[in-house]
Amino acid sequence: MSENNILRFRKGSASRQVVAEAYSILGNRKSQQDFAGILAYPDKTLAVLCDGMGGLKGGEQASRAAVTMLLEDYDRRRPGGRMVDFLCEEAARMDARVHGLESGDGRSLDAGTTMVAVVVREDGLAEWVSVGDSRIYLLHEGVLTQLTRDHNYRNYLEDALKNGTVTQARYDQEINSRMAEALTSYLGSGKLSQIDRCRAQLRLWPGDQLLLCSDGLYKSLNSQQIKAMLTDNQTDARVSAKRLVNMALTQAVKKQDNTTVVLIQYRDGKTEGQ
Q: Which of 79, 81, 100, 130 is most buried (most C-beta within 10 Å)?
């Protein structure tokens, strides 16, 4: 296990309400293409997670470049107002940045990465964006909800079937094919086609948890297993993140992919501190 792929910065005194921790494993892969970052101010915490596309060259560089760019831009600009607008603007900038990455000999890396990012304010209001198939989950009062929708060919087919733009025969033929997991949107395409975003600010209450994760987690653990791990390990965010990832490694049927999580706990600052 190595966490050289996780950046953590704390600017000023720590928030008593928002606690964010990250954990990552290489799995059985030869390279680490996940990258994550946490930038914590007393009044807001930004968390971002990217999963470099394994089928393209430069996935590691892509995820690192995207995370680093978002953290640096946020720290430099300290944006106010709607965070989701800033995050969407940054997604477009990150797409262009990754699309323009080059190898040492000046050739295009043809790199890509997914991205999920969230900003949580000390008062419990949160905003998020997503590109690709990394996910954000919310655990609230014992109910685990997936906030994001995967940008893959499977969901495209499901939408197209509902809209009548593909036939039932084509849907049946392709829904379980290898192409079903192919991404329909990712950073690095140079023409970002889909950005999933919150339509309104999300209100967090003491005890709520937000989980950002790469697909290495949810392809090894189902939603009930994820919920159980988050519920059983609520006290220490660092311990909970580590146990969640290690359980994915234990439960993996096939070779375990890179697996990274960022866990954000929202607490009652009057009674809970860290």
A: 130
